[in-house]
Amino acid sequence: MPAKLTNAIITAAIEGFESQKIRIDHQISQLKAMLSGGSPETAATPEPPTRKRRRFSAAARKRMKEAQQRRWAKIRGVSRPPAPAATPEPPKTKSRISEEGIKRIVAATKKRWRLAKAAKAQTATAKKTAPARTKAAAKKAVPAKPAKKSGRVKKPAANRATAKKMATAPAETATQPAGQ
After folding, report:
1. 30 belongs to a structural domain
2. pLDDT for 95-129, tens place per residue?
3. Cys bridge to 73: 78, 121, 162, 172, which one at CB 3.0-4.6 A?
4. C-alpha distances out from residue 109 to 17, 70, 100, 140, 156, Å
């Protein structure tokens, strides 16, 4: 029958196995050092080697830039790479509208506003000359039925607002005097 494992026995076993692991890792690192001819490193803590960043001279960076531009030009289908920065082009001047052009734009805007005001005035006079509603026609308007209060389902806010306007609109027209 196996012995009962207690916490003390388990911790002692863990420590023993860890010491064996360290010893084995040390032996592995020594054997690797013999193969490569370098110094032995512990295999327990393998860290990736950090590479130092290479520095390029200004001339080398310029050559790399031009080579990259040629590669992109070939991909895009451009016949030749852009000209070097030694001969920069003068900046383009902003184009301006001539005074004659500005006057034409102002005249067209004024004409458009005159036409818009005339159309607005014409619709206002058409509303004034429309026949007035008679009292009999106002009485014939059917008032809106009140909504049932039982089993009412809530509507979204926008629909409630329009429903409220629609419910009050016929009642307002019925109470207005005929001349207004």
Report:
1. yes
2. 889 999 999 999 999 999 999 999 999 988 887 77
3. 78
4. 93, 51, 14, 48, 43
